[in-house]
């Protein structure tokens, strides 16, 4: 006879990320029909009592289960994929998903190097027979279009040369744009978009430093008024903080599917870039290690694979 | 097709020697310079530069800059550069000379292929330690900036696919925007600056089918409006660049006091590409061969150099 404790373990194995294949094999695989019937009767969240005298799988839960089984495959495919194809696919997916996913466009445009972003744009041509800028320009409707098109079109200088006076002057421009934020939305301010989408990252680092001198605050704090600008600035000023926050949101119990998908995206795309730094920041922010949290929330092969990627930084 | 006449084989070392000899002593033997440099393809010119550097421990370009002056020097300097580097220099000059010469920016960004233009952007960064986008952005303002930054930032899809339905709908968007005098309309800039060249051509053709007149004619009325003029130039550069270049040449030569900048730029940048077709168009349109018009309006070594590039 099946025991309630095992039911509980199984129920838990259906939640969170991925599936606990070993548990299913060792438990469900052993049960005979009477035990499975008891399981169905006791698991109201998975099975509905049908009027014609049997317990019917709740289709919504079957779909959820399918999705959790898929996570390992998705991670594997994404991990083995060329980074250009990966970024192009992620960008396209974000575009299709609509405004709640536009942050992924900003993430890709701002955290990749100039050549990586260019590569993604090439791959986009191959995959979709369109340029990413034409797709973003024609699909995005709202005022954020200007910023998004500018960011995905960027091919920034990556050398060491920075003009301090220009950075200082432009810090002032950004500061004023925020101050006037009530009358004119900063993300629609041409100067703000120009500076954030064309200047080199080194120039922007210098600019952020001057900004703090002028405003007394970190620019991320001041740009809080505008979601897209805030994220743009976060990605360029403190990408590891940004990624830690995304991971935290993905690993929460109340995370929705969009937030959950970010777990795979961030780990796969940063595993060989700055995962070590992200882990440090995550720990500082949330008081627990990323690996521990993944261990608690994910199951089975998916969990093992993620942990392997997360731990990759260790031996470097 | 190209108009320059160049041998398939050459000896970079011998060429370098000829050039050296032409620069030695009093004065310069410009004829000798022209006889070599005007008759070499880009990769050959690069080899000559290298051979000259190796042999004489001097940058050939710097040497020529000190030996020559005026229109001839400017033309030869532009000619000798590698094409991507040349375009980068042209773009930079267009931005830094007080009043932005937006036509040059449009020409460079719209008549080169996406890959060629990418090479231009890389060359620009290597030379000026800034991206072309950031320089265009901070030297322009308002609606013109919007268009130019978009044209310079785009990395167009270069496939042959045409979406006919899209062409139809975007032709209508353009029609509507122009009718309403909304030239700064974000949609016009979006379509012209992001769509692939093939798709844009299909859209322009559809516009012509629907409205019995070409979009550039509809935009022609407003010459003083810089944005409208730019849009027209961009569309013409993308959809029929040889015709566009013919017009630039015609205007440059017809002006009282020829516009040498425009003349040099078009001849130098197209001599290895499609100057032959442009020459044909010029003859058809003006009833005189381009060489004749150039000979009439220019003189000295500058004239000789241009004629050499034209295939003489």
TrEMBL record, chain A:
It comes from Dillenia turbinata. Pfam families: Annexin. Signal peptide: none annotated. This is Annexin repeat. One of its GO terms (cellular component) is cytoplasm. GO terms for biological process: response to cold; response to heat; response to salt stress; response to water deprivation. GO terms for molecular function: calcium ion binding; calcium-dependent phospholipid binding; phosphatidylserine binding. Keywords: Annexin, Calcium, Calcium/phospholipid-binding, Metal-binding, Repeat. InterPro entries: Annexin (IPR001464), Annexin_repeat (IPR018502), Annexin_sf (IPR037104). PROSITE patterns: ANNEXIN_2.
Automatic annotation (TrEMBL), chain B:
GO terms for cellular component: cytoplasm; plasma membrane. A pair of annexin repeats may form one binding site for calcium and phospholipid. It comes from the Eukaryota. Ca(2+) 2 binds at residues 255, 257, 297. This is Annexin. Pfam families: Annexin. GO terms for molecular function: calcium ion binding; calcium-dependent phospholipid binding; phosphatidylserine binding. The keyword ATP-binding does not apply. Belongs to the annexin family. GO terms for biological process: response to cold; response to heat; response to salt stress; response to water deprivation. Keywords: Annexin, Calcium, Calcium/phospholipid-binding, Metal-binding, Repeat. The keyword Calcium applies. SUPFAM superfamilies: Annexin. InterPro entries: Annexin, Annexin_repeat, Annexin_repeat_CS, Annexin_sf, AnnexinD_plant. Ca(2+) 3 binds at residues 295, 298, 303. Ca(2+) 1 binds at residues 25, 27, 67. It comes from Dillenia turbinata. PANTHER family: ANNEXIN, ANNEXIN D8.
């Amino acid at each position: 006879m099946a025991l309630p404790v095992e039911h509980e373990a199984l129920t838990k194995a259906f939640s969170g990320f991925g599936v606990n294949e070993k548990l299913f094999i060792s438990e469900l695989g052993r049960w005979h029909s009477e035990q499975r019937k008891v399981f169905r009767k006791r698991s109201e969240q998975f099975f509905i009592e049908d009027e014609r005298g049997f317990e019917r799988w709740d289709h919504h839960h079957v779909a959820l289960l399918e999705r959790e089984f898929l996570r390992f495959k998705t991670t594997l495919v994404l991990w083995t994929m060329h980074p250009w194809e990966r970024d192009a696919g992620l960008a396209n997916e974000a575009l299709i998903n609509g405004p709640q996913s536009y942050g992924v466009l900003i993430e890709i445009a701002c955290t990749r190097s100039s050549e990586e972003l260019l590569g993604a744009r090439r791959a986009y041509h191959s995959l979709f027979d369109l340029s990413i800028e034409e797709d973003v320009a024609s699909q995005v409707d709202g005022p954020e279009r200007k910023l998004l098109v500018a960011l995905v079109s960027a091919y920034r200088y990556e050398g060491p040369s920075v003009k301090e006076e220009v950075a200082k002057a432009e810090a002032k421009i950004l500061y004023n744009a925020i101050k006037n934020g009530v009358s004119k939305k900063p993300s629609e301010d041409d100067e703000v978009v120009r500076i954030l989408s064309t200047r080199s990252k080194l120039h922007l680092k210098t600019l952020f430093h001057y900004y703090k001198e002028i405003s007394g605050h970190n620019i991320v704090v001041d740009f809080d008024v505008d979601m897209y600008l805030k994220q743009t600035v976060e990605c360029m000023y403190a990408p590891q903080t940004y990624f830690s926050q995304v991971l935290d949101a993905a690993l929460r119990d109340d995370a929705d599917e969009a937030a959950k998908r970010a777990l795979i995206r961030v780990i796969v795309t940063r595993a060989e870039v700055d995962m070590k730094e992200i882990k440090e920041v995550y720990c500082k922010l949330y008081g627990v290690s990323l690996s521990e949290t993944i261990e608690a929330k994910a199951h089975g092969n998916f969990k093992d694979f993620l942990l392997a990627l997360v731990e990759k930084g260790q031996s470097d | 097709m190209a108009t320059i006449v160049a041998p398939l084989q050459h000896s970079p070392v011998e060429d370098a020697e000829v050039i050296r000899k032409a620069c030695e002593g009093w004065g310069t033997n410009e004829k000798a310079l022209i006889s070599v440099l005007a008759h070499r393809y880009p990769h050959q010119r690069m080899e000559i530069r290298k051979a000259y550097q190796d042999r004489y421990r001097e940058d050939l370009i710097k040497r020529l800059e000190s030996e020559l002056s005026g229109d001839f020097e400017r033309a030869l300097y532009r000619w000798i550069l590698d094409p991507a580097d040349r375009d980068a220099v042209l773009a930079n000059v267009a931005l830094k000379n007080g009043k932005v010469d937006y036509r040059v920016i449009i020409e460079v960004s719209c008549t080169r292929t996406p890959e060629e233009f990418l090479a231009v952007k890389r060359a620009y960064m290597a030379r000026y330690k800034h991206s072309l986008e950031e320089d265009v952005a901070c030297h322009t303002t308002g609606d013109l900036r919007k268009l130019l930054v978009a044209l310079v930032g785009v990395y167009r899809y270069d496939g042959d696919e045409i979406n006919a339905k899209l062409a139809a709908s975007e032709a209508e968007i353009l029609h509507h925007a122009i009718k309403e005098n909304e030239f700064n309309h974000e949609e016009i800039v979006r379509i012209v600056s992001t769509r692939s060249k093939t798709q844009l051509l299909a859209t322009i053709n559809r516009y012509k089918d629907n409205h019995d007149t070409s979009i550039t004619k509809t935009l022609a009325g407003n010459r003083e409006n810089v944005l409208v003029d730019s849009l027209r130039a961009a569309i013409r550069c993308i959809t029929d660049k040889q015709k566009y270049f013919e017009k630039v040449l015609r205007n440059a030569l017809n002006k009282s006091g020829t516009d040498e900048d425009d003349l040099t730029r078009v001849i130098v940048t197209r001599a290895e590409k499609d100057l032959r077709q442009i020459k044909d168009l010029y003859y058809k349109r003006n009833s005189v061969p381009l060489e004749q018009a150039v000979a009439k309006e220019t003189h000295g070594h500058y004239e000789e150099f241009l004629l050499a590039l034209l295939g003489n």
